[in-house]
Write a structure and sequence with these properties.
The protein contains 6 helices and 5 strands; from the N terminus they run βββαβαβαααα.
Length: about 190
């Protein structure tokens, strides 16, 4: 995939021990385009170590194919089952290692933050997130498994977060505007 200098490619990942979702988006800061999204099937049985190896290899394939500038991951959701949390943490760690092996910066986001960024509601269901994304990208048919839309949500969350940060850094503020917005920061004698 050849990209223009101003484009930013983000690989979003939703690591899991049975299914890992992925999504690649491309942005020129004016428009976000969905390049590809899908899942990596790991199966229900089999060795946990071999599943981790497959996550590593498949994430490397995605990185090599799409050459992302950044990788965004969904942080593991911590429930009551400690074993599940450990396995999810390992899956995330392996995905991170794959990105780091290609010197790609990584950012992780809590599931609640991702849902908030996409739907405006941190308590939204996976189905609500998927519906919002399908509408936004004009996708006609929802994927059978929502891990792909979860990964897309992570990528979009990362894009939005970085766009807001960049905008704040480049926004010019006059001294008068600053004083008007932050009167509590002004010394009373200087007014």
């Amino acid at each position: 995939m050849m990209k223009k200098v101003s484009e930013r490619v983000i690989l979003g990942l939703d690591p899991g021990t049975t299914i890992t979702g992925y999504a690649v988006i491309c942005s020129d800061n004016k428009k976000v385009n969905l390049v590809k999204y899908g899942i990596i099937r790991l199966g229900k049985g089999g060795s946990h170590e071999l599943k981790l190896k497959k996550i590593f290899e498949e994430v490397l394939k995605l990185i090599d194919a799409f050459i992302p500038d950044e990788v965004a991951l969904e942080a593991p959701f911590f429930g009551k089952n400690v074993q599940s949390a450990l396995k999810l943490g390992r899956a995330q760690g392996v995905a991170m290692a794959a990105a780091l092996s290609r010197q790609i910066p990584i950012t992780e986001y809590a599931p609640r933050k991702v849902k908030q960024a996409v739907t405006g509601n941190g308590n939204a269901s996976k189905e609500q997130v998927a519906r919002m994304l399908l509408r936004q990208f004009g996708i006609k048919e929802a994927p059978r498994l929502l891990d792909a839309t979860d990964a897309l949500a992570v990528a979009l969350c990362h894009h939005g977060f970085n766009t807001r940060v960049a905008h704040k850094r480049t926004a010019k503020t006059t001294w008068k505007e600053f004083v008007a917005r932050h009167p509590e920061r002004m010394d009373k004698t200087s007014r």
